[in-house]
Design goal:
1 helix; single chain; Metal Binding Protein, Guanine Nucleotide Exchange Factor, Chain A; 40% strand; three-stranded antiparallel sheet; mainly beta; eight-stranded mixed sheet; 131 residues
């Protein structure tokens, strides 16, 4: 079980079980939504994710994609895609213990900023991979 939430504490969540993946994403959409050069995500079954407090705001960042964030402090929290209806991605840095979930994969390297390093300890994909 793992807990997390936003910077101001208005939104808190929990998931149980072990994430099916832990990845960093270099895509333009994640960069723009977070204001960061790369975003780390853990993927869990939606059935294992629950909100403990607060109601996050939702932004449809592209067709079939909903990003949740705190409407008070702006913390990016989740990414949900209609293409993967049974899972939800959670921003790793919003977890209480993000070091427990180091990334094993990097995706959308074709969008990577030239000055953003990659990790030699991860698998790399030029675009998205569900592996």
């Amino acid at each position: 079980m793992a807990d997390g939430g936003c910077l101001c504490g208005a939104v808190r969540y929990r998931f149980s079980g072990t994430p099916s993946s832990s990845a960093t994403c270099h895509c333009r959409s994640c960069r723009r939504a977070s204001g960061a050069p790369v975003v780390a995500w853990v993927t869990v079954p939606r059935s294992e994710f629950s909100l403990l407090s607060g109601i996050p705001a939702v932004y449809q960042s592209s067709p079939g994609v909903a990003r949740q964030f705190c409407s008070h402090c702006g913390t990016a929290l989740t990414y949900a895609s209609e293409r993967r209806p049974d899972t939800i991605d959670i921003t790793t840095a919003s977890l209480e213990y993000p070091d427990d979930y180091p990334p094993t994969t990097e995706v959308w390297l074709e969008h990577r900023l030239t000055w953003q390093p990659t990790s030699p300890d991860t698998k790399w994909f030029e675009a998205f991979s569900s592996d």
